[in-house]
Write a structure and sequence with these properties.
With about 250 residues, the protein is of the alpha+beta class. The protein has three domains: about 1-40, Roll (Luciferase, domain 3), CATH 2.30.38; about 45-165, 2-Layer Sandwich (GMP Synthetase, Chain A, domain 3); about 175-245, ACP-like (Non-ribosomal Peptide Synthetase Peptidyl Carrier Protein, Chain A, Orthogonal Bundle). Helices cover about 40% and strands about 15% of the residues. Strands 5-6-7 form a three-stranded mixed β-sheet, sandwiched between helices. A two-stranded antiparallel sheet has the order 1-2. The longest helix has 19 residues, at about 100-115. About 25% of the residues are buried.
Length: about 250
């Protein structure tokens, strides 16, 4: 303990210190093998769908993506301008073009969704990761920049590139494709889903997948298991699989 508290401010001291006199620093840690390890900050916990997620856990998952070593990817709970709900936003160090970043953005969203069931609201390319002089990542500065719209130009360009990459839909969809697309459009309102889009890459959360499966089961009772959404993650693939079962 290195401080006796705030000068003549008993209320601040009561909030800042434990009953036995230790300062609440806000750091999170654990003791392993007799050694103390600092694992993060309490204020950095991401709160989504009623659950807490640690940024370091999500970042560890994303280190499987080529080029995303420690310190080059930051997971944070952020709110877009005037939004009320905190969403998962991933910031990635990228000094190339936005077009070059598109495959990385897709892989980040897919991997987080596949491993945790979380929907990534945005994957944001940034030119630098702000850090303190001691090397700690300043998540709050990225969160504030996102809320202030500093990355809007890049995100608009990414959305346009996704739209261009999607290409034209087939002129005529099969009856099953139409039905499945209608179900996905309702469940994933606000996202334009093509029949060849991977549901994990567009960020369908585990809750949304359950909702989609429930609606499919109403239309085609007992024909599709929830796990088959992982095996056939596009509308086109799932439609072909379902058509084979119904034939």
């Amino acid at each position: 303990n290195v401080t006796r508290g705030y000068y003549e401010d008993p209320e601040a001291n009561a909030a800042a210190f434990t009953a036995d006199g230790w300062l609440r620093t806000g750091d999170l840690g654990l003791v392993h093998g007799g050694e103390l390890y600092i694992s993060g900050r309490a204020k950095e916990i991401i709160f989504v769908n009623g659950q807490n997620y640690y940024p370091h856990d999500l970042e560890a998952i994303l280190q499987r993506v080529p080029g995303l070593e420690l310190g080059k990817v930051v997971a944070a709970g952020a709110r877009a301008r005037e939004a009320e709900i905190e969403q998962l936003v991933v910031f990635v160090l990228h000094r190339g073009t936005v077009a070059d970043f598109l495959p990385t953005a897709k892989e980040v969203a897919r991997l987080i969704n596949e491993q945790t069931g979380l929907e990534v609201a945005e994957v944001v390319p940034v030119k630098r990761i702000p850090k303190t002089t001691s090397g700690k990542i300043q998540r709050h500065r990225l969160e504030e920049a996102y809320a202030d719209g500093e990355f809007d130009a890049e995100l608009i360009e990414l959305a346009a590139l996704r739209e261009a990459a999607r290409g034209a839909e087939p002129g005529t969809l099969s009856r099953i494709e139409e039905k499945l697309k209608g179900i996905c459009d309702v469940a994933l309102a606000g996202k334009r889903i093509g029949i060849h889009d991977n549901l994990f890459e567009v960020g369908a959360s585990s809750l949304k997948l359950i909702e989609i499966h429930e609606q499919i089961d109403r239309e085609y009772p007992g024909q599709v298991d929830l796990t088959e959404l992982f095996d056939f993650p596009t509308i086109a693939e799932l439609a072909r699989h379902l058509q084979g079962k119904l034939a």
